[in-house]
Amino acid sequence: MFNSSYEELRSGIVSVSGIQSLVQIGFNSFPTLNSKIALAAAFVVHKRLSDKYLAKFFNCNDVSPAADKELIFREKLDGGQFFLKAGADFYDLPGSPISYWVGDEVRKVFRDSKLLGRVAPAKQGLSTSDNEKFVRLWHEVSIDNVDFDRRSSSEEWTSGCRWVPYNKGGLVRRWYGNNEFLVDWKNNGETIKGLAPKSVVRNEGYYFKESITWSDITIDSAFRLQDGGFVFANSAHSAFCNEGENPYVILGLLNSPVVEFFIGALSQSLHFDVGYYNVLPYPSGCVSDDLVGAVCELVEISRNDWNSREISWSFRGLPIVSIAGEGSICEAFERQVVNGRELKLRNLSLEDVVAKCAYEAYGLHPEDQLCNPRFVVEDIDRKQVADRLCSYIIGCAMGRFSLDEYGLIYAHNSGVGFDPSRYIKFPADVDGIIPITDEPWFEDDVAERVREFVKVVWGDNNLVENMEWLADSLGRKSGEPADEAIRRYLSTSFYKDHLQTYKKRPIYWLFSREPLIYSTKPGHSVSPRRLR
Length: 532
Hints:
The chain is α+β, with helices and mostly antiparallel strands. The chain has helices at about 5-15, 70-80, 105-110, 130-135, 185-195, 245-255, 255-265, 275-280, 290-305, 320, 330-360, 380-400, 445-460, 465-475, 480-490, 495-500, and strands spanning about 20-25, 40-45, 55-60, 85, 115, 120-125, 135, 165, 180-185, 210-215, 225, 230, 235-240, 280, 510-515, 515-520, 525. It folds into four domains: about 5-100, no CATH class; about 120-285, Alpha-Beta Complex (Adenine-n6-DNA-methyltransferase TaqI, Chain A, domain 2), CATH 3.90.220; about 290-370, no CATH class; about 380-525, no CATH class.
């Protein structure tokens, strides 16, 4: 019904014969196969029908994927719930998809508008042929070996760095984010280019330019602003504005419910590639400045949210620590919750502005079924805040972060370039080894460092109250003292959370001693040896 590969077949059915009726079954088309993914449609064609003939179309794909589709069809048939559409109407949309639910106003937009691809063409990117060899999460390499400042593929390679930021797509996220990967691009990708034709370097002239990006596989529409300085992967489709075009206008339109409806009319698969993007309509009328202002603010909200997590290379500090003052962790947490609620309300208000402006730009009238606002800011969860606080404290103790400076302080190995003078308020461990024990054997073990950090940030007067709050937040057992609850979390659960946060690419290595065995990393044992 939608796949571009079958455009000729669809045109032939509509022009040579004609659709008499069609049932879009969608998910759960073959229940005996126990498949909720396979999509199907059943249709009847008649070779003597005119393309003006009003065929009946039944949508059984607007219910739960697990629903009994035969029962749904019978209910719609008996209730007269169907669409009437002539075959000639399908020519209005590029590729002639069988989008029977699209009304006349939207079809007119497609007929009369210029193509988005002529304003901000989308491009496919790099296929390395071996991601395991050439791609890394950014925290896996020394930060000094990453070139964050490159802005053109034609620049002479003078930095000496091996790695550059790599836009690889990622999970559904709107407006900004998913900056996680690096690619080996030393000497302008000399090694990767040497693997051609296995590797494919597409559209190199667009590398390192600012773009609008989205992931190839996505359930919900989610477009993001991508800063300059990235090579983009083939799975991270990217659009580049022509000179004089405002990327915030295009980003706002793409994330609006109007364009989401257009996308659904062109394709209902899990893939939305550059071919579909380039034939989206671009409004011929003026776009309100209110849309640009709303999008700018939404991008900043999303950027700040992304950078509030230590997995971001632009991380500056933990929110609950940044808003700490005289008082307790509980008070700081409550302020964070209030700030989060206000930000979500602002997020919703801005999304409404974007939707309204997009409707006006395309000359369409809002319809309730098209509105689907999404929040950028995640809900504030007490357990999650406590987990992140412990992770940040250990990061400060290891020298990765500091209470004296913002951002990433040390991300190298072997102690090269480590400067203890950058950690005055809360000294970092000089040798980078912190004992994790289930009993208080050492004065500087991880539990004691947590207590020390809480005292430094929130003061000595509320120390008992703060440790009680932290213990409760981490999941204290009934009757368990606060210190024991915190120590239990640190000795049994912290490293599991760390592996999950850093996607099984830890920045701290756990050495655990069982009888005669030291473990250098999860799942890997080595012969007994003395650690020096």
